[in-house]
């Protein structure tokens, strides 16, 4: 992320100059970029952080052996965390809850919102499978009491139960609850909670740095014309129109 630090440095320098927009040539920009030194160890830690947080256990193990970079958590715990995430993504919510409790019972005990969302996802799966009576019973016995204690839970419960009022649930106003994105949202919430319980960041650092790079470039755009990155996937420098 040497470009990010270069942009920040350039922005600070231009702040101290006149208000006229400065033009920075590609040659000058690339020279400044090459002058920025980032330790390889720091870059390796950034890569390892991403692999661990996103759950790429095999890649993390291979990267550890090749780079000598040690992860800040036991890689074996990644497998368990990914098993929970996969269970939710496949709609096996009961199995996911059991696995979470095996990992650390306090995760759900201390996070009522997460537990409600898992139970809500379980209700969605019952409705998806056409188990209407079981869904109504589950909603009444397991979710309704929680809704009485929390208005936001009650709103979500009512929205979920509304699925039962439509024959064509896929195209009803609340049909998005049956979309795969709802499973992914719940799985992501569980993943973040497990990471937090392991004293690990719930989000990888790399995306945050990329967002900071975009912000820094936008700030610099107001004061200078310079080769910038427009496509983060390629990280190619493109000359700005003067």
TrEMBL record:
Where is each CTLH domain found? 77-134
SMART domains assigned = CRA, CTLH, LisH
Instruction: Give the matching InterPro entries.
Output: CRA_dom, CTLH/CRA, CTLH_C, LisH, Ubq-SigPath_Reg
Q: What is this protein called?
A: CTLH domain-containing protein
Q: What is the lineage of its organism?
A: Eukaryota, Viridiplantae, Streptophyta, Embryophyta, Tracheophyta
